[in-house]
Design goal:
Blueprint: H1 12-20, E1 26-32, H2 36-47, E2 52-55, E3 71-72, H3 76-80, H4 84-101, E4 106-115, H5 120-135, E5 145-148, H6 149-155, E6 166-175, H7 177-190, E7 194-196, E8 199-207, E9 210-218, E10 224-234, H8 240-247, E11 255-266, E12 275-279, E13 284-290, E14 293-297, E15 301-302, H9 314-325, E16 339-348, E17 362-368, E18 371-376, H10 382-394, H11 417-426, H12 429-435, H13 439-449, H14 453-462, E19 469-470, E20 473-477, H15 478-487, H16 493-500, H17 503-506, H18 512-526, H19 530-552, H20 556-563
Parallel strand pairs: 1-2, 1-10, 2-7, 4-12, 10-18
Antiparallel strand pairs: 3-6, 4-6, 5-6, 8-9, 9-10, 11-14, 11-15, 11-16, 12-13, 13-14, 17-18, 19-20
């Protein structure tokens, strides 16, 4: 099967050409930060016809945007804070992502909300969830249902009978956040933006008070480049205060970091046909279905240590286990955990120091002429954040700029997804015969690539050996990592194991066996010799062992020290 229109491939050749051209031109917009908001801003600006360069110090979504609960949701708890506008805005975005912008990556998911008290709690929580469904507008997920204890236990036999008096089942949506962010960046490139990873801003260019670009270092070569820009957008999340320091002027807000930890356990460890949500004394805890696993989290604690490598400590893991086990017939143990990850929420500082109560709403500021900063917000509302900051930057350009059109712009893989899926899954025998892939594997690929799956089929047609599973990570194909190296902006082994795939948190050995196989597979496309493959594999091994040591540490300080034994480029 042949792919249709060619999409921009983020290949080594693409990067080399883009780096070589950096010093030659002035762009309308320089975006600093390759998380979901930065990638969204690059797409928003490029789709308005502006010239755009995006630079990211590490990899797309390497920070917060690959370490979320992987939910696209309105935020039930914001209803309790009476933040109806934020919930309505987020639910509108959820509908857009599910139905048109990214239906290949964003899927409905159901949650059971166990009720512990009779009568009043059902009325109180039920009214809140009914409002949640109503604020969601056009029906993009099924309506909630009230369940008796018997019905709830049929859906979730893993729960103890005394865990609830009954339950409410409601729907939200989930996303592979790292893949979605990377696909946004690719879509921006397709719209004409230049998108670059491993390019670190080391200083801002100035003409008087005005910011006119940035000096960046190519981390792969150590070379410095000047990027001149009419406007600069900082979408740096938890690194916003580093930008404040670099700018040397006072910002109207600061960002406080809150650490959220998740654990991953095998799907067969919990007998449930639905996700689960429960209150804790600090926030809410989710049990979220994730292919052959459950994601369980999150915590909400202040963090002031290393921003690049936040780590789950033994105390974080125990907190999650204690809370989820309070509802389970068979308690989970540390031996059940196949992966952990920790992320930092960028919360704008407010009047209270309790991070769970800080605002998730976003703000845009222009602390120095030509420099625009976006901070706060949540993953679900990235598109609105991007639109708002580009709107502000556009006013500085002294010319007419088209309004944002991203509400109507499907990201790569979404265009034609529903039709292609219907065709492939209606009669998969022919494709199974052509590719040697099972219908189950084709379904897996559709959920990761959408309509771009035809590019994977082309790879396999050219080299049928790529249809095999990866050694040590059988849920992924060799073709997927080769495609990531040729089209998805991969520069290091960690990019592949941690973000293009989720092998680092989905297999018990954290991807140590897979690293060897993947290193050999991508050596050709990435131009690595055997020494470079060994270097990459060893760096990944070091990272895994440092994280496992950190997971045994009892405090954040000792976990942080254990993790930083090896930082390298990871």
């Amino acid at each position: 099967m042949t792919s249709h229109a060619r999409t921009t491939r983020l290949s080594p050749a693409y990067r080399a050409a883009a780096i070589a051209a950096l010093d030659d031109t002035e762009v309308d917009v320089l975006v600093i930060g390759g998380g979901v908001t930065g990638a969204g801003a690059a797409l928003d600006a490029a789709s308005r016809g502006l010239s755009v360069t995006l630079v990211e110090a590490r990899d797309f979504a390497a920070g917060t945007s690959s370490r979320s609960s992987k939910l696209i949701h309105g935020g039930l708890r914001y209803l309790e804070q009476m933040d109806f506008a934020l919930v309505r805005e987020a639910l509108k975005e959820r509908g857009l992502l599910l139905n048109s912008l990214a239906p290949h990556l964003v899927k409905p998911v159901s949650f059971l909300f166990p009720l512990q008290h009779r009568v009043w709690e059902r009325a109180y929580i039920g009214a809140g969830i009914a409002l949640y469904d109503t604020l969601g507008g056009a029906r993009s997920v099924p309506m909630h249902k009230h369940l008796s204890r018997t019905k709830a236990l049929e859906l979730a036999p893993a729960l103890t009978e005394d865990a609830m008096t009954g339950a409410i089942r409601y729907y939200d949506a989930q996303v592979d956040d790292a893949r979605h962010t990377m696909m946004l960046a690719r879509t921006a490139a397709d719209a004409g933006a230049t998108v670059l990873t491993r390019t670190t801003v080391v200083g801002l260019l100035r003409e008087g008070e005005r910011v006119t670009g940035a000096m960046v270092e190519d981390s792969e070569t150590g070379r410095l480049h000047q990027i001149k820009a009419k406007t600069v957008i900082s979408a740096t999340g938890v690194w916003t205060d580093d930008m404040i320091e670099m700018t040397g002027v006072e910002f109207p807000f600061h960002v406080q970091m809150s650490k959220g930890v998740h654990i991953m356990v095998p799907r067969d460890r919990l007998d449930m046909d639905t996700g689960l949500i429960m209150r804790t004394e600090k926030s809410v805890l989710f049990v979220i279905p994730w292919a052959q696993h459950w994601i369980i989290g999150t915590t909400d604690t202040e963090w002031s240590l290393d921003k690049n490598h936040p780590t789950a400590s033994a105390a974080d893991v125990q907190y999650i286990l204690d809370h989820v086990n309070s509802l389970l017939r068979e308690p989970l143990t540390r031996a059940d955990i196949v992966g952990t990850y920790a992320g930092l929420r960028p919360l704008m500082t407010g009047a209270t120091k309790e991070t769970a109560k800080l605002s998730r709403e976003h703000a845009v500021a222009e602390p120095a002429p030509g420099l625009f900063v976006i901070a706060g917000g949540k993953y679900t509302t990235y598109r609105v954040m991007a639109k708002d900051v580009v709107d502000a930057a556009a006013q500085r350009l002294n010319r007419a700029v088209a309004p944002s059109a991203t509400e109507f712009m499907p990201i790569l893989g979404a265009q034609g997804y529903f039709e292609l899926r219907a065709t492939l899954l209606a009669d998969p025998e022919d494709l199974v015969a052509q590719t040697g892939l099972s219908a189950e594997v084709i379904e897996h690929l559709l959920g990761r690539y959408g309509s771009l799956v035809t590019e994977l089929f082309d790879l396999i047609a050219a080299n049928p050996s790529l249809a095999r599973p990866i050694d040590g990570a059988p849920n992924y194909l060799a073709a997927e990592v080769v495609y990531a190296a040729t089209s998805e902006g991969v520069l290091h082994l960690d990019d592949l194991l941690t973000r293009r795939t989720r092998i680092s948190i989905e297999v018990p050995d954290r991807g140590l066996a897979a690293a060897q196989d993947i290193g050999r597979l991508v050596a050709g496309p990435l131009g690595w010799d055997t020494d470079r493959v060994d270097t990459e594999v060893n760096a990944y091994f070091d990272r895994v062992h440092a994280e496992l040591a950190a997971n045994q540490a009892t405090t954040d300080v000792s976990a942080n020290a254990a993790r930083l034994v090896t930082a390298r480029w990871l």
